[in-house]
Structures are given as C-alpha cells and as structure tokens.
Design a protein that fits this description.
Radius of gyration: 18 Å
Largest sheet: 4 strands, parallel
Strand order of the largest sheet: 2-1-3-4
Shape: globular
Order of helices and strands: EHEHEHHEHH
CATH architecture: 3-Layer(aba) Sandwich
Number of strands: 4
Strand content: 15-25%
C-alpha cells in the first residue's frame, strides 16, 4: 500500500524530528512511502503549501498518514470536513493514530451494516476534528489570559 506522510508543526521554532518516527513506523507496517510533506504552519490555516501539494499528489487507493488529527487540521469543523473530503475525493483515506479506521470493514459490509459503519466513521472523524479545534481555541484563550495578566503586571514584552 502507498502512503504519503504529512508532518506539521506550528512555528519555525518547533522541530519536526519528534514526528519523523511515523515514517519509520509506516515503512515497518509495510507501506511504501511515496512522499513526506514537512510543514511549519498553523493547523488553523487551510492554505498550507505542503498540505495542498500533498493533496494534489494523491492517487486513488493511497493513505495519508499523520501523527495526530490536529497535524492535519485545527480548522473550524466545516472547513476541516472540506479538507478531509478533498483527500477522500482523490480516492485516498486518512490513517491517524487515535482515530479508528473502519473503511476496510465498511468496504466489505453490505446493507445496513455498511451504512452504519460509514456513519460511525464520519462521526469519529467529525469528533476528532472538533476536538482538535476545541484544543486550539482553548490554547488561544489561555494565551490571551496570560498576556492580559502579564500586561496588568507590567511584564508583557510582546506585540500589542
């Protein structure tokens, strides 16, 4: 099976090294890694060059592997769903630790079982994507609160 690995950190100060192990794990699991896409950009932006290049490179039957769902997206849910749909529209699927992949079971199932498995898969992705966004918003709020406290104490040295 062919995989494309997407690695992302939010800032230039961060390092992708911790995520590199996912490439080794993919190869050990029998995947041929056709591309590794490294990005230093916010997951709350849809216009990430490496992400868009990866989606453009995808071929039917391939798998996109990321360390966590928040490496793919921290976008608001409707935008995150469009992003996932753009990957699926290429005939590819996402493989992210922590998000159960029922696509093989759904492909083999028939009737009601197929409908239920597909619906559960959609629900699991929606839940994971929303949790990634919630985490992003929680972090931003805590950061805002910390900045405000530092300002009040006369210790804030950042941007206003």
């Amino acid at each position: 099976m062919v995989a494309r690995v997407y690695l992302r950190v939010s800032t230039d100060a961060q390092d992708l090294e911790r995520q590199e192990a996912i490439t080794t794990a993919a190869k050990a699991a029998g995947y041929y890694v056709a591309g590794i896409y490294r990005e230093k950009a916010s997951g709350a932006r849809a216009d990430r060059p490496e992400l868009l290049r990866m989606i453009g490179d995808l071929q039917p039957g391939e798998v996109v592997i990321a360390e966590k769902i928040d490496r793919i997206s921290r976008l608001p849910l409707p935008e995150a769903e469009r992003l996932v749909a753009s990957i699926q529209a290429k005939g590819a699927r996402l493989a992210v630790p922590g998000v159960v992949d029922l696509s093989d079971l759904a492909a083999e199932a028939q009737g009601v079982a197929k409908i239920v498995l597909e619906a559960v898969q959609i629900m699991l992705f929606r839940l994971a994507l929303q949790m990634a966004r919630d985490d992003y918003e929680d972090r931003r709020e805590r950061q805002r609160q910390g900045i405000e406290l530092a300002r009040q104490a006369g210790r804030y040295k950042g941007r206003y």
